[in-house]
Amino acid sequence: MAPAKKPTAKKAAAKTVVAQQREIQRKVDVQDRKAAKHTHTPKPPKPPEKTPVQAGQRRQPQNPMPAQHLQKPGNEYELELQPRFLAPGYKGSGKLKGMVAIVTGGDSGIGRAVAVLFAREGADVAVLYLDEHRDARDTKKHVEAEGRACVIISGDVKDPRFCEAAVKKVARKFGRIDVLVNNAAFQLHTEKLEDLTDAHLQQTLQTNIAGYFHMARAALPHMAVGGSIINTGSETGIFGSKRLLDYAATKGAIHAFTMSLASNLLERGIRVNCVAPGPVWTPLNPADKPAEEVAEFGQGSDMGRPAQPEEISPAYVFLASPVTASYISGVILPVMGGPRG
């Protein structure tokens, strides 16, 4: 009977983390409401200051975005405007044929879009996620629709034991691990450093950078020459962010970790790279910002709108494939809609 208790224990641990995240969010929301009372009445969303740029195969949504505030950790199915992740114009050509990939935070947003394109390129995919079960099942459905196998595993990347157990499960099921995408993240703003609680700080640090260490350390014994690790960084790790002090710091650390690990693994033939996106329409920001700010999300970028996940995911395919990136390692690839995001 002992093995049957393990999934229950993991689910309980994930729910505990969700409760912790929501308590941190509750306190920040209270601070936001107090600040709003002492400043001014909330104004309607500002009209875009410039014409948004549409440079892809199909026209993408632009501002105003839905004025919506989600509970942490943020469910994609609850978003009023569903993120676009299917990339219908993208045709697979076997760039990852026969490979096995792990994507953390793969239930939604960029992670979901990456999982789908990896499958379209011929990879089986393991999706690791916290507690967003419905989103994870949806991702699995779309990966399998591409003709590849998918396993979904719930747990907390802050816990090194979970990371080790999840990686071993994937290795047993598929017999190998070729690509690790570190993508899970926690983001929540604060107006002042003095408002950043220890619980908030540790949630960000342990998820965003320690979790990347845990996953890479667990995966490496199962990776061989030709394997790759791709980390998700951010424009905030390059330019900083005055209201995302802890988040931006972790993204800068991820960039440094990427370059350092790339050097460390060079002789083993395992490449390490990083994608640094600008604003992307995923549950992450509506689960952070007040609704009125979400409506304006991304309009300050060079393209005047947020990216959709399907506009980011091809960069991960490029870096993962030995066909396209065999001589690329230690790179921070900005996908920000312009030179300054």
Architecture overview:
This protein has a seven-stranded parallel sheet, with helices on both faces. The chain has 341 residues and is of the alpha/beta class. The protein has ten helices and seven strands. Helix 2 (109-120) packs across helix 9, helix 4 (160-174) packs parallel to helix 5 and helix 5 packs parallel to helix 7 (245-265). It has one domain: 3-Layer(aba) Sandwich (Rossmann fold). The longest helix is centred in the N-terminal third of the chain and has 38 residues, at 2-39. Helix content is 43%, strand content 11%.
Note the main attributes of this structure:
alpha/beta, 341 residues, Rossmann fold, globular, seven-stranded parallel β-sheet, 43% helix
> Could you state the order of secondary-structure elements as H and E?
HEHEHEHEHEHHEHHHE
Task: Give the name of the CATH architecture.
Answer: 3-Layer(aba) Sandwich
What is the end-to-end distance?
A: 53 Å
Low-confidence stretches: none
- The first-level CATH class is given as Alpha Beta
- Structural class per helix/strand content? alpha/beta
Number of helical elements? 10
Give the overall shape, derived from the CA principal axes.
globular
Number of domains: 1
